[in-house]
Amino acid sequence: MRITCLRDRQRAGERLQAIAGRTEGGRMREEEARVAAILAEVRERGDAALLDFSERFDGLRPDPLRVPPERLAQAWHDCPEPLRRALDLAHDRILEFHHRQMPADLAVVGPHGERLGRRWRPVQRAGIYVPGGRASYPSTVLMNAIPARVAGVERLVMVTPPGPGGEPNATVLAAAHRAGVQEVIRVGGAQAIGALAYGTETVPAVDVISGPGNLYVTLAKKAVYGTVGIDSLAGPSEVLVIADHTAIPAQVAADLMAQAEHDPLAAAILITTSEALAAAVPAAIEAQLERHPRAAITLQALNDWGLIVVCDDLAEAAALSDRFAPEHLELLVEDPESLAGRIIHAGAIFLGQWSPEAVGDYLAGPNHTLPTSGTARFAGALSVETFLRHTSLIHFNRAALEATGAAVVTLAESEGLHSHAESVRQRLGIQES
């Protein structure tokens, strides 16, 4: 293993910038063109295109595309009892937390009796993308379906790639049943995003698409944005650990590897004030890689996108972390609460030894769909609001318009918009000056 270790702050900052931009490059334009062609075919040919692309990319034609609802119930029934209990626990904790996110409508009475407000309403249809491929993700089902249900979405449609036998992963189907999803479509990739955006004979067009995926899924979401809403443009997963002398090397190693095992493009970064920890963690990683079932993926990610930085103090560590704006930030330090107060940019912060990032992935309660690739500077986690839209309410009475109308006319005239001004004059009998 050749994980990079740096002690120079400028070089560390440059390396962090390179890691954040690891999915950029000239290849992107070629992939965008391929995605655009896939989306155009789905829009034109509907289900036929979905079947053809599934055969081309997955080696099978999932006909029918829709999974029978009874298959979802059967998957839940067949789930081993310990797994069913774990899914129940995760479901209930996520549901409870997201219920607390529901925004309240706003109603204000102005100084002249005018009534102003903002009301929240759910979108009517939401599409959820659940990845397949290297691993199955029942947690993604819960983290996307539950906020949509809490928001009050009428119709949830889940798309997920079929496995080698033509069926989606059984645990994914069980999680869908537990989360109240009734419509599951056996299709993945950019073509699945196109189906949700444009609609086909089997797949209804939706208003919002959420859920992570590979590069093609992300580019497809980017391309259809505007036709539908999207949650975010998720990149490969990443964790940044800030640790001091109190951190345990084996725990730090496991936490870095927990991200690296996701994907060869996953990033795992340690920023520490302890030279001893920086020296001990690579050996701990090597020990845990032995007989690791995903060793090849984990090792590639650590070699390409792993980084250890030794800092003089935690203030410097926090500044470097904010420069990176990590998706997941772990604070394995003596006083995590104090350090958390210094952090400005992070998707989720995990405080202390007993809060490994894995609990956030599965059942802590807050959503695990988080901003990546530096977008935590301006974005946050998927939430109930992802599936809601707000509408402004404005109800002026005569007194309010009389009190403010002259100002409206003045502002409209300053912009050269005659009829804007006239719409007020007509009501108040104001003569044009």
Keyphrases for this structure?
metal-binding, five-stranded parallel beta sheet, alpha/beta, 14 strands, Rossmann fold, six-stranded parallel beta sheet
Low-confidence runs: none
Strand order of the largest sheet: 1-11-10-9-12-13
Strand element count: 14
Helix segment tally: 17
Overall 3D form: globular
CATH topology of the largest domain: Rossmann fold
What is this structure's SSE topology?
Layout: E1 4-6, H1 9-20, H2 27-45, H3 47-58, H4 69-78, H5 81-99, E2 106-109, E3 115-122, E4 125-129, H6 138-151, E5 155-160, H7 170-178, E6 183-186, H8 189-198, E7 208-210, H9 215-224, E8 229-230, E9 238-243, H10 249-260, E10 267-272, H11 275-289, H12 295-305, E11 306-310, H13 314-324, E12 328-332, H14 336-340, E13 348-351, H15 357-362, E14 388-395, H16 398-414, H17 418-428
Parallel strand pairs: 1-11, 4-5, 4-7, 5-6, 7-8, 9-10, 9-12, 10-11, 12-13
Antiparallel strand pairs: 2-3, 3-14
How would you sum up this structure in a few lines?
The protein has 433 residues and is of the alpha/beta class.
Q: How is this structure best described in words?
A:
The chain is globular. The N and C termini lie far apart (79 Å). With 433 residues, the protein is an alpha/beta fold. β9 (238-243), α10 and β10 form a beta-alpha-beta unit. α2 (27-45) crosses α3, α5 (81-99) packs parallel to α6 (138-151) and α16 (398-414) runs antiparallel to α17. It contains 17 helices and 14 strands. The chain has helices spanning 9-20, 27-45, 47-58, 69-78, 81-99, 138-151, 170-178, 189-198, 215-224, 249-260, 275-289, 295-305, 314-324, 336-340, 357-362, 398-414, 418-428, and strands at 4-6, 106-109, 115-122, 125-129, 155-160, 183-186, 208-210, 229-230, 238-243, 267-272, 306-310, 328-332, 348-351, 388-395. The chain has 3 domains: 4-23 and 235-364, Nitrogenase molybdenum iron protein domain (Rossmann fold), CATH 3.40.50.1980; 28-230, Nitrogenase molybdenum iron protein domain (Rossmann fold); 396-428, no CATH class. The mean pLDDT is 94. The strands form 3 sheets. A 6-stranded parallel beta sheet has the order 1-11-10-9-12-13, with helices on both faces. Strands 6-5-4-7-8 form a 5-stranded parallel beta sheet, sandwiched between helices. Strands 2-3-14 form a 3-stranded antiparallel beta sheet, with no helix packed on it.
